[in-house]
Amino acid sequence: MSGNQNSQTIKNPKPSYETKEKGPELNDRDRVNDILAMEKYLTDSFNVSAREASHPALHEDILTVLMETHRCQYDMYEMMFKKGHYKLEGEQQAKLDQTYDQFRKYATQFPYSSQLQ
Prior knowledge:
Layout: E1 8-11, H1 28-52, H2 56-82, E2 87-90, H3 93-107, H4 113-116
Antiparallel strand pairs: 1-2
């Protein structure tokens, strides 16, 4: 987004109880960020476990836990966004269209591209 003069930052305000100066003590953001990092680690680990599971029932159980972990990770991200700890950069429609067209052209090179459309 750098260089785009018309970019739009999408963010929420940070909670008023958070100080601008960060000291060595853990605050709410630190705690939730730690939980988010743990959830990301767990989803990575459960993805590997799901691929490696050799028993059908075990595979299904791992997939169930994996989906729950993905939901928890997303919930942590959403909470951090709502509390102003994450921001998004908006993009102009022309740039989105250009990127979409670029990847749509790549898809025509796939061996089974007719099945993807």
